[in-house]
Amino acid sequence: MKLAIIGAGTVGTSVAEMAVTYGHTVTALTDSTSASIDSDGLDVEATLSQKRDTNEIGTDSVEDALASEYDVLVEATPTTLDTAQPAYDHIRAAFERDRDVVLANKGPVAQRYADVRALERESEGELRFEATVGGAMPVLSTIEDYGPEHVTALRGVLNGTANFILSRMAAEGLDYEHVLVEAQDLGVAEADPSFDVEGTDTALKCVIAANVLAQGEREYTLDDASVDGIVGTSGSALSLANADGRTVRLVGEIVDDEIRVGPRIIPQQSPLVVSGTENIVQLATENAGLLSVSGHGAGGSATAISIMADIRRLE
Amino acid sequence: MKLAIIGAGTVGTSVAEMAVTYGHTVTALTDSTSASIDSDGLDVEATLSQKRDTNEIGTDSVEDALASEYDVLVEATPTTLDTAQPAYDHIRAAFERDRDVVLANKGPVAQRYADVRALERESEGELRFEATVGGAMPVLSTIEDYGPEHVTALRGVLNGTANFILSRMAAEGLDYEHVLVEAQDLGVAEADPSFDVEGTDTALKCVIAANVLAQGEREYTLDDASVDGIVGTSGSALSLANADGRTVRLVGEIVDDEIRVGPRIIPQQSPLVVSGTENIVQLATENAGLLSVSGHGAGGSATAISIMADIRRLE
């Protein structure tokens, strides 16, 4: 397939690099202000080198890229909330040309799900967004295959930064501030970590999953989620839990049609107690108990392989 | 979709009962000697009642069912090895009529994989067999979506009977014979448990997965697997392991293109240490580390929901 990749950050770059090994051609790659376009296929390495050297990906415009020849638009610009722009406009441009759209960007399907599905209905193109929930883990495809109507609840650890921090606090008896700095030094937490540690990232993923489960009966946005983060969790909270054979993890859940995110005290042997930056999602199914998927929930490669899986499903 | 369900044991019965809630029509249902056929859709409850009362499912023949009007043939007769009959003939009959085939029966894709794929290539029909590996867990679909060529190894606990026995031995310090009887009383182990406790069931599932991963480059059968079971595992082996914070589980793995099944001593915190009859499969991916799926690996409902998922993928 010919891929137009919108966004050249960690995810866009990983998708561009992985695309060739999956048999695809990258015909356009954009950053926030420019684009590189070649309908016969870009030299991805050369294009990324140019970006590193000149801070511009090419001499074309993002508009040119949206108008170029491609099969699938991969939206990998940074997640924005509210109106989910400019991602929403990118999606609309693709659907107006009956192209398929694969999202890594959570904004459109968290904050404007009904609008995006309406654009899709008007189009020959199809929307997929596995990478927006759980990185490499096949969460949305499992829900899709088993039938959203047959999945009765979802629960998971969906943010690697928060999980890493809590794991380290528990393992070493350290306090939050200390481990946050360690996480930032390792590149596991951002300079501004609020999106992760305040629970927003987990909440967005639950909102997206809830929109899928609702199948159009109800539309969720971030405002519908009850969200508590892990900021300032004390080392003593973890020590107390540990004394009972339990620990604390940032858990997101969709239960009885409500979305809740917050630190939970859970038994140490619970499958939800994953280590480091691992993620896990448990789906309660109507007929077959709990199904769980776990793996790398974030990172360029983890996100990119779910985008490759979505593209394969479109073929 | 119209389903012709071949086999009215635990799995066939579960599929027939579940089909209607998934929006499908059961147009034929067979046991080993007879069939009930209605191209407008059987009354599944009445048909199953008749089977319970008379030990015959209907007054038509299995041949009639294979020749009847349907979209998808669901092969749910008991797994047989060697020539995988009569399942193989059922598959051939469906493909000769360009119908789709969904398997719960492991025999054809474990013992005659190349033959079955050849039949499929000659047909407009498509083959799917998620339910043959890991029950409710989305193992084969995950391999398919992420690309078999990008999955470098597989490891798992794939037999609930063996896992239940080892879990109970570890938890209670009981010996093998004692726990086997308990498992049989609970219906977790068969009267003749050899298929499960000798590792054959796990091996067949690994053989099927290995065939999928090989993508036609190599064909595996049960003879290619190195298989050790759990028969006669001693309580003291488990106690010794426990003293080191470890335990014993029956693990199947595909590593470096070889299939090995046997009891393994593993750390108690390993994700492979699942409880009771749970199963887990870990996939090593080229680009995104370990992906794991876990859930109910056996039972009528667990198997049936994977069949429903396969049918959804065919639509």
UniProtKB/TrEMBL annotation, chains A, B:
Domain Homoserine dehydrogenase catalytic: start-end pairs: 138-311
Keywords for the protein's UniProt record, in alphabetical order: NADP, Oxidoreductase
Active site per UniProt: 205
Any single biological process term in GO: threonine biosynthetic process
Coiled coil: none
Keyword hit for Oxidoreductase: yes
Residues binding NADPH, per UniProt: 106
EC id: 1.1.1.3
Location of the Glutamate/phenylalanine/leucine/valine/L-tryptophan dehydrogenase C-terminal domain: 2-60
InterPro entries in the cross-refs: Glu/Leu/Phe/Val/Trp_DH_C (IPR006096), HDH_cat (IPR001342), HDH_CS (IPR019811), HDH_short (IPR022697), NAD(P)-bd_dom_sf (IPR036291)
SUPFAM superfamilies the UniProt entry points to: Glyceraldehyde-3-phosphate dehydrogenase-like, C-terminal domain (SSF55347), NAD(P)-binding Rossmann-fold domains (SSF51735)
Protein name as annotated: homoserine dehydrogenase
